[in-house]
Amino acid sequence: MAAPAHPLITDLPKGYEFDIGAIDVTQDGVERYLAAIEDTNAVYNETGLAPPVAVAALALTQLLEMIDLPDGTLHIGQEIEMHGGVPIGAQLSMRGWIAQRSVRQGAVISVIEFALTLDGKGDPALTGRTTVMVQGATA
Amino acid sequence: MTITPVTKHLTQERINCYADASGDHNPIHVDEAYAKATPLGGTIAHGMLVLASISEMMAAELGEDWLRYGKLRVRFKGPTMSGDTVTASAQETANGNYVVEVRNQDGDGVISGTAEIAPDA
């Protein structure tokens, strides 16, 4: 049997670091996102700043592409914090890691934290914390 | 103070558009045959798509401050099925933060949490 292409989230210990590259927050990408969610607010174009949840969603998609999620995995919690805003057109460096892992009544609960930094600057522009639960997982 | 709520009808077409925009094509969101065979019985909207309604509402109220210093902390309480209509609402608290939630057309809560502008903004 072939080995899974990516590690199962339930196998990742606290402290595991994801090897993630850059994320591009392009004008086209933001426009497609805003069209998809039907948000017509002019504030994004007027300020040149990306919607916070759009940036977090991009980051999350990239993170989740690096792991296998068993059927029945639930996204149960999300935190997003902006630290000055993410300009549309920015390239962001991303770090992600398993901040917590616990087992409750046969379910594995993993907390993934991530930080997105504007290239060339040290402070994060956005930080996030995603909680997923895998029911019926063996610890 | 109550913020103007945001209501969204999350059709399968809307979910598919979001999948393309976000890159998240998990079959539970976009493959109706696959999803029908799961305990959910059908496709569901991405949690981040539903969450976007809260951010849209906060951006409409707080503008650039939200884009620069917004902070969201939520729990996903239940799935949003394809075809559901959801409404995001917020109530300002005494300390200037907001209690936020999203409910579906049946009044069931699907997201609850808090929103605020970071104190160091």
Report on this model:
The complex is a heterodimer of chains A (139) and B (121). With 139 residues, chain A is of the alpha+beta class. Chain A has three helices and six strands. In chain A, strands 1, 2, 3, 4, 5 and 6 form a six-stranded antiparallel β-sheet that branches. In chain A, strand 4 and strand 5 form a beta hairpin. Chain A is globular, with a radius of gyration of 16 Å. Chain B is of the alpha+beta class. Chain B has a domain at 6-10 and 45-117: Hotdog Thioesterase (Thiol Ester Dehydrase, Chain A). Chain B is 35% helix and 29% strand. Chain B has a five-stranded antiparallel β-sheet with strand order 1-3-4-5-2. Chain B is elongated, with a radius of gyration of 15 Å. The two termini of chain B are 21 Å apart.
- Outline the biggest β-sheet of chain B: 5 strands, antiparallel
Helix content, binned percent of chain B: 25-40%
Q: Termini distance of chain B? A: 21 Å
Most extensive chain-chain interface? A-B, 41 and 38 residues
Give helix % range of chain A: 10-25%
**Mean pLDDT rating of chain A:** 91
How far the N terminus sits from the C terminus of chain A, by CA atoms, comes to 22 Å
The H/E string of chain B reads EHHHHHEEEE
Overall morphology of chain A: globular
Share of residues in strands of chain B: 25-35%
Approximate shape of chain B: elongated
Assembly state (oligomeric): heterodimer
Please write the string of helix (H) and strand (E) elements of chain A: EEHHHEEEE
Number of helices, where a helix is a run of at least 4 consecutive DSSP H or I residues of chain A: 3
Q: How many beta-strand elements of chain A?
A: 6
Percentage of residues in strands of chain A: 35-45%
User: What structural category characterises the helix and strand content of chain A?
Assistant: alpha+beta
